Amino acid sequence: MDNNSDESPSEFVKYLDGLNNKKLNKYLGKKGVAEKLVQRGNSYFNKMWYAEAARIFDIVLEKTDTKHTYEILSKAGDSHYYTGNLEKSYKWYNELYTLYEDEINTDTFFKYTQTLKGTGKYRRAAALTKILRQKRNEPLNELESLNTNTWKGATQVTIKNLDINSKYSDFSPMFHNDSDIVYASAKDSSILTTRRYRWTNQPFLDLYVSKKKNDDGDLLPPKKFSKKINTKYHEASSAFSPDQKTIYFTRNNYGKRLKRGKNGINHLKIYRSQNIDGQWTSAEELPFNSEDYSTGHPTVSPDGKKLYFVSDMPGGFGETDIYVVDILENGAFSEPKNLGRAINSDTKEMFPYVTENSLYFSSNRPMGYGGLDVYKSDGSDKTFAGAMNLGEPINSNRDDFSYIVDASTGKGYFASNRKGGKGDDDIYSFAYTPNLNAIIGVVEDLDSGEALPSATVLLLQGNRMINETTVDEMGHYSFPNLNPTTNYMVVAKKEGYLNDSLAIQTADNKNIVVTQKLKAEIKQSAAEAIVKTFEPNNVYFSFDSYEITPSSAQELDKLITVLKSNKGLSLKIESHTDAIGSKAYNKYLSEKRAKSTKDYMVSQGIDPSRIISTSGFGEDRLLNNCGDSQSCPPGQHRLNRRSEFILIAE
């Protein structure tokens, strides 16, 4: 079998795998066989038969003398990456990076960092992420803003692998009726069926339905969802209208056979079917589908008025973005609208799910745990806040996705291909224990006992500000979702009053109720009052830099305005660094920061004589414990890269 026919790739791979080492080596030793195998692997790869391509490239790279070229290593890594074998993908990407570091493109580089996280090499992934940002000409100081913002809404999460999982891919659960779960599976209950999806060499996906067995999330043995909806190709990712009479689902684009777009890819489309007299009608495709890009992963808002979905249509921000359309009363739809940068990134956003007040989705954006992670964004309709990573154990160093939750119970399901499962992708149930750790307080006038509306309250942990809020008309405020048995500092302040600081330790999943009473300030001279009440914010610097950033310039402009309005004020500038690098260099850098701070203020019209001194203290006055021997996240180091100010009334 040394011809180059692509008619039966699975059979050819089985033939190779069936040879013992002696026969395989003899076969590979024939003249021209290695070259033909590379051609065959390229052909499989181009047709997206990645499972077979991966096996062919492995044989070529591991058992022949074929040169390990950029193209072969890249395609070998990609083939394993697309089929979820991160260990083997890492092997070939790592060799590719070692041999061709200067040639590797940013897309392959990103997938390499994903395999590093997927195989537990987080430090290496973080280091290479910095290099990736340099290749893209993206500033390194922005890495601080990429730190994972992890949701703290639960103190405990219990997850469980379900009995319905097969050795194939089981994923995309969805609530149906009161006690059913509809999900997609590649398990093949028909003995006569031999069709396989070439991407992963698994059976094509069908929709299954299973009833809930108990309140612990267990499910009874499933059955096929509907003969009208399941076909010989893929059906997956379903969603239902609130009355459960309409189903939306993802299917391959096909007529009598699979259809391919201009780029040769068989795209996905969203279909709709109605339940009439207990039977599902033949499915119709939605009008915003296309022959040249994919739409899929639909989900319906709780009120049934909006449909959210995923697409790689032109004009998006990344590989796939989340879009929304209005479901009109006549069954038609509005034009798709991208959810914007608050949700979508430069990478993949997939598997949206909407509750009354939140959007959940999966993304492989940087600084996650690895692969696809589940994120939560609070909001409603088309306005959602920035996303929070749901953290462990929902997320792992593999792909975690198709998350659904009953907001009233804190229970739900998601899919993952993490280690320890029964197959490729498995469905897990989960149950949250809500996080009740909160500080609930009121701010009052010390003398009158009356509430102080519009007072500001800061929440600090150590020297780091965690949160800030403004009290309501009754003087009330709250800081929810805190860590248990943790020391915090609450600082209440209001113009015309002295600040009040209160040290608080949270309990074990309980609310802490506090009252803070502020004392009115004694009347002072104008200059003294400004010194007392105006507290200039620190000006922060990028790593290893003394340049004034736009945000720092805004803070300095506020200080400049005060100095210009009050001629009796003078200023001292004190600048600092983090503890990264030598003490001598940091002393020099801090002096440069003090000088650049002064130079900016002088350039904006401040008389140099009013700046009494500029001092650089290097790393001698750290605001936290991030010294030379301590491992700290970037955000903690940033707090130390600052200029501070002392106002002096003459």
Please give the largest β-sheet.
5 strands, antiparallel
Rg (C-alpha, Å): 30 Å
Please state the structural category: alpha+beta
Count of helical stretches: 12
Strand content: 25-35%
Distance between the termini: 95 Å
Oligomer: single chain
Number of DSSP strand runs: 33
List the uncertain runs.
1-7, 140-147, 189-199, 255-264, 524-534
Shape type: globular
> How much is the average pLDDT?
84
SSE layout and pairing:
Blueprint: H1 9-18, H2 21-28, H3 33-46, H4 50-63, H5 70-82, H6 86-99, H7 106-118, H8 122-135, E1 154-161, E2 170-176, E3 180-185, E4 206-211, E5 223-224, E6 235-240, E7 246-252, E8 268-276, E9 279-280, E10 284-285, E11 295-300, E12 306-311, E13 321-326, E14 337-338, E15 349-354, E16 358-363, E17 373-380, E18 383-384, E19 388-389, E20 400-406, E21 411-416, E22 426-434, E23 438-445, E24 456-461, E25 464-470, E26 476-479, E27 487-493, E28 500-505, E29 511-518, H9 526-533, E30 539-540, H10 550-565, E31 569-575, H11 583-603, E32 611-616, H12 634-640, E33 642-649
Parallel strand pairs: 23-29, 31-32
Antiparallel strand pairs: 1-22, 2-3, 3-4, 4-5, 6-7, 7-8, 8-9, 8-10, 11-12, 12-13, 13-14, 15-16, 16-17, 17-18, 17-19, 20-21, 21-22, 23-26, 24-25, 24-27, 27-28, 30-33, 31-33
Helix pairs in contact: 3-4, 4-5, 5-6, 5-7, 6-7, 7-8
Report on this model:
The chain is of the alpha+beta class and 650 residues long. 23% of the residues lie in helices and 29% in strands. The strands form eight sheets. Strands 6, 7, 8, 9 and 10 form a five-stranded antiparallel β-sheet that branches. Strands 15, 16, 17, 18 and 19 form a five-stranded antiparallel β-sheet that branches. Strands 1-22-21-20 form a four-stranded antiparallel β-sheet, with no helix packed on it. A hairpin with a 3-residue loop joins β15 and β16. The longest helix is centred in the C-terminal third of the chain and has 21 residues. The radius of gyration is 30 Å and the shape is globular. The N and C termini lie far apart (95 Å).
